[in-house]
Amino acid sequence: MSLDIQKIRKDFPILSQQVYKKPLIYFDNGATTQKPRVVLDEEIKIYTQENSNIHRGVHFLSEQLTQRYEDARKVVQKFINAPNDHEVIFTSGTTESINTIAFSFGEKYVYEGDEIIISTLEHHANIVPWQMLCERKKAVLKVIPINEKGEILLDEYEKMISPKTKIVSVNHVSNALGTVNDVKSIIEIAHQNNVPVLIDGAQSIQHGKVDVQELDCDFYVFSGHKVYGPNGIGVIYGKEKWLNEIPPFMTGGEMIKKVTFEKTTFNELPFKFEAGTPNYVAAIGLATAIEYIQQLGLENIVAYEKELLDYATQKLESIEGLKIIGTAENKVSVISFNLENIHPYDAGMVIDKMGIAVRTGHHCAEPLMQRLNIEGTIRASFSFYNTKEEIDKLCEAIMTVKQMFG
Amino acid sequence: MSLNERQNEIIEEFSVFDDWMDKYNYLIELSKDLPEIDPKYKAQQYLIEGCQSKVWLFADLEGDVIRYSADSDAIITKGIAALLIRVLDRQKPSDIMNNELYFIERIGLQQNLSPTRSNGLLAMVKQMKLYAMAYNAKVGK
């Protein structure tokens, strides 16, 4: 079955906006995805008809919404094929998810001289929490190198793992280049050495089926707003054995079992990691978004986005002086590029004025830019609601940029 | 010409453009006319680091006025620097400190002023005013 893109576009109210009196072309899906009307309606419905703080309330609304929040957890559980719903923890987003694991795992298992492995492709959010942990514990951060195409060098990684390695944390998909990493092999190699692996799924969750059991990852994290859900909600999937072993990150609220001034005991999973009032509205909104894309069919989305990627790659490659940055064999629908002798910022300013939203700069991956020896790139990231006609418009805009700055 | 007369002149020039592309083309032209910065000031210590483009800014006192020079690796940013220099160069430190740069909003560049736009405009204005404050203290002595 193929997708009816024009019909789908009507599900996303923002796509009919105009910017600078031109129809909006939204190619900044890597930064955040737009929300279908069902998600927006769901959130309004909760606030107008169902709102009440969840858990521990004995009244009707509280019990009803608690049930819906826990149902949302089950939707996420099935979506990523987690074995148990208590292995799914709601956070505010990927950044909080990684910080939680870096702190909690680090507190329990990381000591002076230990090593933590990340890759050159990481977003700052998957670098800095580990750096902070290393500073706190006097541990060492190791970085897996990449090749010119923007692919992780697995053999280098294998050599890097040592008895001192405590955890590996890599992204599934690079936000800056679109590279799909061979995380299955990364996890296998780590597990042969009894090292757990965290996968940063912020850029993969919206582009295809994720099965945490098949991957056998120890932790998988992602954000709701990058998978057509609301802002302010994210997920940690963690294997039960780890989540039970490591201490909580934040304390207070539902994560407490019993408090006296002498001692506090913590609640069971998943509540142990959900301190304070969770963003239950966004959690339910995320479940609605997941159900929406499941209705479209993940395999349909993957196929169509591949078509967009191939089309855009071919069109952009034919522009003289345009260089695609990141040419991995396996990519999602994200294209980073530079124009010869034109600063990405200049290009971005002009492309913007033509109604096209792209991102320019280092994409919060400064070390990667340094490795590639570039200041930054222009990044167009496509979603299933984008069209080939929009890609044609981007190419026209690039020709204008070339004329202006050439 | 006073600082505000120069601002008004720029507002007048920009008033003929009804399209962003014309404004950008004009900024590109201005960037080409910006006198080159002495290479020795194109160094790390004169760099105003915005998120996306690099801006080098130097200021010196010449008599009782400030002389500014700047450069950027992005052309639009360089054009904006050229506008700022046109308004503030050869002005007295006290005038630079005490006058509002209202032309930025009037020509539609205010969207570049938010701290996160990071084209260095805000940082440039701040740095230019800081130089003025420093030299004002010196002139006052």
Structural description of this entry:
The complex is a heterodimer of chains A (406) and B (141). Chain A has helices spanning 5-10, 37-50, 60-79, 94-109, 128-137, 154-160, 183-192, 212-215, 240-245, 280-296, 298-317, 344-353, 366-372, 388-405; strands at 18-19, 22-23, 25-26, 88-91, 115-119, 140-144, 165-171, 197-200, 219-223, 234-238, 256-259, 264-266, 322-325, 334-339, 356-357, 359-361, 377-381. Chain A has 406 residues and is of the alpha/beta class. Chain A folds into 2 domains: 5-30 and 297-405, Aspartate Aminotransferase, domain 1 (Alpha-Beta Complex), CATH 3.90.1150.10; 41-294, Type I PLP-dependent aspartate aminotransferase-like (Major domain) (Aspartate Aminotransferase, domain 2, 3-Layer(aba) Sandwich), CATH 3.40.640.10. A 7-stranded mixed sheet of chain A has the order 4-10-9-8-7-5-6, with helices on both faces. The longest helix of chain A is centred in the N-terminal third of the chain and has 20 residues, at 60-79. Chain A is globular, with a radius of gyration of 22 Å. Chain B is α+β, with helices and mostly antiparallel strands and 141 residues long. Chain B has one domain (3-140): Sufe protein. Chain: A (Alpha-Beta Complex). In chain B, helix 1 crosses helix 3 (75-88), helix 2 packs across helix 3 (75-88) and helix 3 (75-88) runs parallel beside helix 6 (121-140). Chain B is globular, with a radius of gyration of 14 Å. Classes of the chains: A alpha/beta (406), B alpha+beta (141). Chain A binds chain B through residues 20, 343-346, 348-350, 353, 360-362, 375-376, 400, 404-405, and chain B through 20-21, 24-25, 28, 51-54, 73-77, 118-119.
The stretches of 5 or more residues of chain A where confidence is low (pLDDT under 50) are none
Q: Please write the string of helix (H) and strand (E) elements of chain B.
A: HHEEEHHHH
Low-confidence stretches of chain B: none
CATH class of chain B reads Alpha Beta
* CA-atom Rg of chain B in angstroms: 14 Å
Sheet of most strands of chain B: 3 strands, antiparallel
Average pLDDT of chain B works out at: 89
> Radius of gyration of chain A in whole Å, from Cα?
22 Å
Q: Per CATH, what is the topology of the largest domain in chain A?
A: Aspartate Aminotransferase, domain 2
CA-CA gap between termini of chain B: 26 Å
- In the CATH hierarchy, what is the architecture of the largest domain in chain A at level 2? 3-Layer(aba) Sandwich
